[in-house]
Specification:
62% of the residues lie in helices and 0% in strands. It is mainly alpha-helical.
Length: 112
């Protein structure tokens, strides 16, 4: 009986831990992801490959990239010189970095 109770308690603990996983995805740090994967070409929202196609709000609006969804799509699938990151980043990471980019553009890429 003691082994059965131990097993049930262990199973309940595993179930509770599995419920916590989505919360961890929400804590993904867009700034860190950007620093590791994007800043090489887009330091401070610029673009070392194509100057006019930067991450400043003016350019994002000009190219209709001024929403999290549009940024998410280009990060995921790439376009022209922009590489696709769907095989390098998870969906929560892409969402986090997309939100970070838009927030930074809205704040003119000032340190926060």
């Amino acid at each position: 009986m003691k082994n059965f109770i131990t097993f049930v308690l262990f199973a309940i603990l595993l179930f509770i831990i599995s419920l916590e996983q989505p919360v961890l995805a929400d804590t993904v740090d867009g700034a860190k992801i950007f620093s590791v994967n994007c800043a090489g070409c887009h330091i401070n929202g610029g673009n070392i490959i194509r100057r006019g196609k930067n991450l400043k709000m003016r350019a994002l609006k000009k190219y209709k990239m001024d929403s999290v969804e549009a940024i998410y799509n280009i990060v995921t699938y790439g376009k022209n010189n922009m590489s696709a990151y769907k095989n390098r980043l998870t969906e929560p990471e892409i969402q986090a970095v997309s939100t970070y980019v838009l927030n930074q553009a809205e704040n003119n890429w000032r340190k926060q």
